[in-house]
Amino acid sequence: MPLPRRALLGASLALPALGARAQAWPNRPIRIIVPSVTGGFDNYARLKTPRLSEILGVPVVVENRPGANGNIGMQEVQRSAPDGHTILFAAIGSLSINVSVYRGMPLDPVEDLAAVACPVTSPMVWVANPESGPRSLGELVERARVAPGKLDYALPSAGTINHLIVEGFKLRHGLDIPAVPYRGTPPAQLDVVAGRVPVMVDSLGAGWGHISAGRLRPLAVTSRDRSPRAPEVPTAIELGLDQTDYVAWYAYMAPKATPPELVATLNAAINRVALDEAYVARLAEMGAGTQAMTPGGAARLHAGRAAEVGRHRPGGEGRGGVAGRGERSPPAIPAACLSSRPCRA
C-alpha cells in the first residue's frame, strides 16, 4: 500500500539516523542498473538521480543493461555485492511477468531480489501513426477484421505489459495483428512515427513527447480512468473494447542479502524524492504518477502481480488470460507470440 504523507515525512526525517546505523554507507557512487535500452523508462530513474545524489551524499549514476526483457540487467544486480551500492530500476514486465512467459528463467525476481521501493506508475496507451494508422481504437478493430494479418503492431520486447495488452486484445476480439519485434521502446516508437508500422501500445510517460508533438495519435488509454495529462483520450474500457485495468509500474530492487537497514535508507531517500514538487510535476507532465511504498508493500505488490500472471500463463493450468488490475482477464497469450519472430496468433 502507498505510504500516507505523514508516515512518508517521518521516514524522510529518519534518514540521517538510518544512515548512521548503516555505518560507512555509502562510501562510493551508487549504480542504478536499468535493464532496458536508453531513452525508455530509464528516464524516470534519471530524473531522480540529482536529488538522490544530494540526499545520499555520493554520485548516483544510471547504467543501461538491456537484453532478454530485463533478465540480463536483473542478473547483474543479483550477482552484485549486497552493500547498497548497486540497485535495480525495472518495470513490471521484468519483475512480475518474465517468470511466467520465459522458460528457464535464470532468476525469480520476487525471490532472488530485495524490494526497495515502487515510486512510479504510468497508464499504457494505444498510439498510431497520424497519417497511416487508425484514427480510433474502434477503427483499428475494423481494419484488422477486414484485412487479417495486414495490420502490424510494434512490439518493444516480448513478455512486456505492452505485449500482454495487445495479445489479450487480439484474442478477445478474434483479430490477426502480427507483432513486429524491436530491441526496446525507442526504435519501436520511431518506426510508428515514420509510418513503417501503424500502431503500438506504449506507456503514456514514455510516449508523451511524441504524442504532445503530434507525431503519434493516442487512441485509448488502458487504465480504468482517463489520464489527467490527456483527459480527451478515452479509455479502452469506456469504449467497450476491453475490460482490464492495465497500469505499468516501475520499482527499485537490491541484491537479496542487502541488510534491512540499507534497504530502509534507500527506501526513505527514494520516497523523499517522490515528495519533491519538481519531480512530481515533471512526471505529471509526462503522464506518469508517483507513489511512496514501504519495502514490504513493494514486495507484496511484486509477488501479487507475479502470482496473478502465473495463474493465467500460456500453457498453464489457469489458462484464461493475463490479468491486469481488473476483475476479468483477457484470453491467454499464445506461446508462439512469446518468441522473437513476428507473431500471428
Descriptive tags:
345 residues; ten-stranded mixed sheet; alpha/beta; 39% helix; 13 helices; single chain
Describe the protein:
- With 345 residues, the protein is of the alpha/beta class.
- It is 39% helix and 17% strand.
- It has 13 helices and 10 strands.
- Strands 1, 2, 3, 4, 5, 6, 7, 8, 9 and 10 form a 10-stranded mixed sheet that branches.
- Helix 8 links the parallel strand 5 and strand 6.
- Helix 2 runs antiparallel to helix 11 and helix 5 packs parallel to helix 13.
- The C terminus is likely disordered.
Mean pLDDT: 84
Gyration radius from CA atoms, angstroms? 20 Å
N-to-C terminal Cα separation, in Å?
37 Å
Strand residue percentage: 15-25%
Q: Strand tally, please?
A: 10
How would you classify the helix and strand content by structural class? alpha/beta
Coarse morphology: globular
Low-confidence stretches: 16-22, 312-345
Helical fraction equals 25-40%
Element-level helix/strand string: HHEHEHEHHEHEHEHEHEEHHEH
Biggest beta sheet summary: 10 strands, mixed
Count the DSSP helices: 13
In short, what is this structure?
With 345 residues, the protein is α/β, with parallel strands linked by helices. It contains 13 helices and ten strands. Residues 16-22 and 312-345 have low confidence and may be disordered.
Helices and strands, with pairings:
Layout: H1 5-13, H2 15-21, E1 30-34, H3 42-56, E2 60-64, H4 71-79, E3 86-91, H5 92-101, H6 109-112, E4 113-128, H7 137-146, E5 153-155, H8 161-173, E6 179-181, H9 185-194, E7 199-203, H10 204-212, E8 217-221, E9 247-255, H11 260-274, H12 277-285, E10 289-290, H13 295-310
Helix pairs in contact: 1-11, 2-11, 5-13
